[in-house]
């Protein structure tokens, strides 16, 4: 008998733990209307998109700019991205052949994996990590190889650990700095050492720089800035976090022409192109006044300081200030329970949507991820409620 079931490539691809917490939180709120859930679960700026960017999208719509575009992206946007790469990252990009505009960084990651990775290839990813990497790799039939990040090293990916995981089947390494979920920022020396490894061993380095502008300490290092390794580097970026544009779905990938040609073919047969009028808005974002980015970064920094201070007041919770992104990753090992149990109790008993660290990989066990891209009032209220629940749980 023919059994209708999803393709086997989905057998180990699940909805993420972030979504599980979101759904539990939604049920908590619906069960007693009037209660306020605390949204620490989604990595989503609470700011509105700056006015000049919205105005550019409206103008593009008024202008009838509503049709398919080149799959690579409109020339004006590719030119603006080329200027941005030179100005901010020190990366020289040929806009004709070394850049594809995508529907968010997630589509860029997924297209790059589909285009460059064969079934059976191994790809070294951070652990914990943004869950998208693992799912895309599993869909491509590849094997994710997790590189545990250690709190004692500030959750930075250690080049020696990457080298130790290398096998003859390693085809790509993924780095992500500033890092989701820990907020770690990699030192340029570590970025360079991993880039050298990839270059010398004939593998790809995928550098996910989605949070490049959300940096409070340290410097952002783009590996593709070094001409000697740029043949191996794919630089992934987006406007989602920098300009509070998560819903606009605008990202990009830059890399060597042959890789971009392959990625563009996957992108073409998946979405055809990024949304036309959003591309015009992206030009306004990249070429416009960057004051909005500095204002939002300053607000995130204040929130970071607040969330760290309040978390440190909770007996049993330990945290070092994250250097970037908008995530706090407190250690809750003192409570002697699986992080998922703690996260679910925080939702059920207090309406707090912190995500269990294990949702980001086994090395995330013992931690919680709090996205602090919410108001200071929410931070005060949410961490206060956490203190009550954790106090009830008691330390092991
Ligand atoms: C590390 C990282 N990369 C990529 C993305 C996806 O970004 P986009 O919204 O542009 O698809 C996220 C979203 O949270 C992220 O945390």
Distance between the termini: 53 Å
Number of helices: 12
- Biggest sheet record: 7 strands, mixed
Helical fraction: 40-55%
At CATH level 2, the architecture of the largest domain is: 3-Layer(aba) Sandwich
Computed CA radius of gyration, to the nearest angstrom? 21 Å
Q: Write down the overall geometry.
A: globular
| Class of secondary structure makeup | alpha/beta
Number of domains: 2
What does this structure look like?
The protein has 396 residues and is an alpha/beta fold. The protein folds into 2 domains: 8-48 and 292-393, Aspartate Aminotransferase, domain 1 (Alpha-Beta Complex); 51-287, Aspartate Aminotransferase, domain 2, CATH 3.40.640. Helices cover 41% and strands 12% of the residues. It contains 12 helices and 10 strands. The protein has helices at residues 17-31, 51-62, 75-89, 104-116, 132-139, 159-165, 188-200, 257-271, 276-287, 291-312, 339-350, 376-393; strands at residues 99-102, 122-127, 143-148, 170-176, 204-208, 233-238, 251-254, 327-328, 355-356, 368-371. Strands 1-7-6-5-4-2-3 form a 7-stranded mixed sheet, sandwiched between helices. β2, α5 (132-139) and β3 form a beta-alpha-beta unit. α11 packs across α12 (376-393). Bound molecules: pyridoxal-5'-phosphate.
Short description:
With 396 residues, the protein is of the alpha/beta class.
Keywords:
binds pyridoxal-5'-phosphate, single chain, about 40% helix, Aspartate Aminotransferase, domain 1, alpha/beta
SSE blueprint:
Blueprint: H1 17-31, H2 51-62, H3 75-89, E1 99-102, H4 104-116, E2 122-127, H5 132-139, E3 143-148, H6 159-165, E4 170-176, H7 188-200, E5 204-208, E6 233-238, E7 251-254, H8 257-271, H9 276-287, H10 291-312, E8 327-328, H11 339-350, E9 355-356, E10 368-371, H12 376-393
